[in-house]
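dude i think i finally got it to work??
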Amino acid sequence: MAMTDRGETGDARGQPPEDRGSLDFREILARPDVRRWLLRVAFAAVVGVLFAIVFDPRVGLTAAVIAVIADTIRKARAGDGGPRTSAAERKTAKQLDGLDKKGWRVLHARSIPRDDDGVSDGQIDHLVIGPTGVFAIDSESWDKRLPVRTLSHTRLFHGPFEKKDRLDEARWEANQASRLLSLALGQEIPVQPSVAIYGPSVPWRVMTVRNVDVYSGGKAKTYLRKRPKVLTDEEVARIADAASKVLPSKFG
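look at this
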């Protein structure tokens, strides 16, 4: 988790430093906002085809457009009402209170900026910078009646539901934070993605699934502290200051 000087020879994947700011097609598809629009378009297409078969193509096209508009309005209304956090986020935030007195910096509800200076739908619930590294924590509240299990460290299930998309989103958010911090500081800044689960029992301390650390929400503070120290106080302060600039608050 230590910072590595990027220098002039390229990053850890063999790419030149100037290429880190660009996004390839796979990274674009991994964006939460892009994926939501793809799902929205797919849903509208299904609606349009069904209405076209039952009635005629013009009715199908109209139904597809209405479906897109209705879903967009529903999402917009769901986001109205000012700053709001989930119960799971508040629980994690409560655990993290007081860490600043022990050399940690915690930033809550940080947005992932777009390349066009807009703000994406991506959000890091808690970005934590401390002696043991930099962590992006997403707090999840799941139905406690359904068990949590993994398969070969590559698949995470909540009851019958696979959580691949949730893990991919957490990893994407952490990767974007790492990219932006590395560009801002001129050094490689790894950011470890993790998911803190509230509700069901999690039958392990920490399990890494698809490169994302997964653990019970009540152990978030222990997860952060029970790791080797890799950053000095000065490095923690530098990274936290940069993070507050490149990852704006979701609530302004």
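The helical segments are 25-30, 32-54, 57-78, 87-96, 164-185, 220-225, 233-246.
im so relieved honestly
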